[in-house]
Amino acid sequence: MKNQIGECLSGLLWNSFCYTNVPAECKRMFTITDKFIFRIALLNCEAVPMSDNIMLTIGALVLLSSFIITSNSIILENKRQEYESEYMLTAIGIAQSVIDEAKTKAFDEVTNPTNTSTLTISLAPESGESFTVPEVVAANEVYQSMIKYDDVDDYNGYSRTVNTPRAGGYNVRVSVNYVNETNPDTDSGGSRTFCKKMTVTVTSIYFSAPVRLYYAFIY
Question: In which band, very low, low, confident or very high, does the pLDDT at 185 lie, cut at 50, 70 and 90?
């Protein structure tokens, strides 16, 4: 009888919490006499074994935990992709700014080349145009490349580090090479042509794959 009363009491307490699975044959009455004492009158009671309720509770908690963990993982991944997209768009803007800067320069050190043989052989800054790279400047300062470089191939080997209000450490690298005039995706194989291809690569800890922009300068 004690075991029946104990099991029925446990079953009643459990069912008062979840409001389900109340045995129809369980007739009960609570009378609260003070803050800590409960009198329980049980008539014809066959309680549901607590072991079944415990197993159901554990199963429900496991499912709930799994759902919460999965939901958090999805939310974090969505946030990561959102931030990465923002940083990559910034990187594209940085790369484009370098290309736009180079567009203001001459095609070659030779002002009016008559044929490809008169073009510069070495694609690099000329004497007096070199400075320490990568460049890092404050927001109100001007990059040396804007002042010292006077033609497109001066940017070959150039690099700078760009910091923005949202994130710092955008690493920019530039390469310039001669390419086929009718197909800029094909390298000229060392031959001088009237087409120079600039590749601007931007890397950062904020996105996994580097951002690259290409531009073909045609004379």
Answer: very high
Specify the DSSP class assigned to residue 151.
B
**Which of 211, 172, 216, 173 is CA-nearest to residue 198?**
216
Q: Which amino acid is at 59?
A: G
CA–CA distance, 100 with 83 (Å, rounded to integer): 26
Q: Is the pLDDT assigned to residue 30 strictly greater than 60?
A: no
Say if strands 211-218 and 27-32 run parallel, antiparallel, or are unpaired.
unpaired
Q: What pLDDT sits at residue 37?
A: 40
Cα 156 → chain centroid: 30
Spans of all domains in the chain? 2-69, 87-218
SS3 content of the chain, % helix, strand, coil (to 5): 40, 20, 40
User: In this structure, what token pair is assigned to residue 145?
Assistant: 């490349």
